[in-house]
Amino acid sequence: MTVSLIRVTENAERLIEEAGRTCYQSFDKADDTSHERLIKVLIKSGHDSVLEHAAATFVISGVSRALTHQLVRHRIASYSQKSQRYCKEGQFEYVIPDKLKELGGNTLDLYNKLMAEIQCTYDSLMQAGLKAEDARFVLPNACTTEIVVTMNFRALRHFFHERLAPTAQWEIRQVASEMYDLLTAVAPTVFSLSDKLKLSGKEESL
Ligand SMILES: Cc1cc2nc3c(=O)[nH]c(=O)nc-3n(C[C@H](O)[C@H](O)[C@H](O)COP(=O)(O)OP(=O)(O)OC[C@H]3O[C@@H](n4cnc5c(N)ncnc54)[C@H](O)[C@@H]3O)c2cc1C
Asked: Over 90: is that where the pLDDT of 62 sits?
């Protein structure tokens, strides 16, 4: 799995401050660190719409289609995903869940064998003249993919609220965790480490 932050609004937290201060006409209160104070107040008071002025774009690759199916349920976002209509899966790669790797032995063999059989069937269907858009019907959820996602900061906070939680599925939790860390580096007030620990249910480890 690779998660890269390829674009983010320049001076995102300053932009959020500027938008917030427009509401209160409080530009005279701006100083070197005032964006941190104001953003904390905005978030605490639920004035979340101001966060929508900043956005980030990620490339996520080497993840399963099971993962992206969950990701694209988040509607306040834009997506571009590798197509299984236009890109042939000549040698598809697949995700092996850690729990399955731990089981190993025959169970892991069974899984790998099935993936190899699926590849053979896919190739045979293609050789028989089926288009990739139809041959792909045999491909598994485990098949890896690549997706570009753009979300604004408000939508991202909502995404993290749902997908960093201990109740979320492991693969999307991992992706969310990497996305969060990348954002903490550029917008540490909106995406603070303490919030991440709270959302991940790890607050007590501090
Ligand atoms: C632990 C977990 C288990 C899940 N299990 C399942 C499952 O078994 N089956 C399943 O189908 N899904 C499941 N989901 C997906 C879930 O139902 C949501 O589709 C997904 O998490 C996206 O959340 P969202 O709609 O809040 O986000 P977004 O689509 O990004 O929307 C963000 C917010 O905008 C508002 N909004 C967006 N669209 C509308 C609208 N049409 N009307 C009103 N308000 C709107 C809402 O406030 C929403 O919270 C699961 C999610 C989690 C985290």
From this structure: yes
Which residue lies with its CA nearest to atom 28 of ligand 1? 74
Q: Is 50 left (phi over 0), alpha (psi -120 to 50) or beta?
A: alpha
Residue 206's pLDDT is 45
Instruction: Please return the burial class of 24, using the count of CB atoms within 10 Å of its CB with bins 0-12, 13-18 and 19+.
Output: exposed
- Residue 203 has a pLDDT of 75
Report the percent of the chain where pLDDT is more than 70. Answer: 99
Interval between CA 75 and ligand 1 midpoint (Å): 8
CB atoms within 10 A of CB 137: 10
Measure Cα distances from 13 to 23, 151, 189 in Å.
16, 15, 8
Give Dmax (Cα) for the chain: 72
Q: Is 74 in the pocket of ligand 1 (CB under 6 A)?
A: yes
| CB of 155 shorter than 6 A to ligand 1 | yes
Instruction: Give yes or no for residue 173 CB within 6 A of ligand 1.
Output: no
Atom of ligand 1 nearest to the CA of 75: 29
pTM above 0.70, yes or no: yes
Cβ(39)–Cβ(190) below 8 Å: yes
Q: What is the pLDDT of residues 180-195, one digit of tens each?
A: 999 999 999 999 999 9
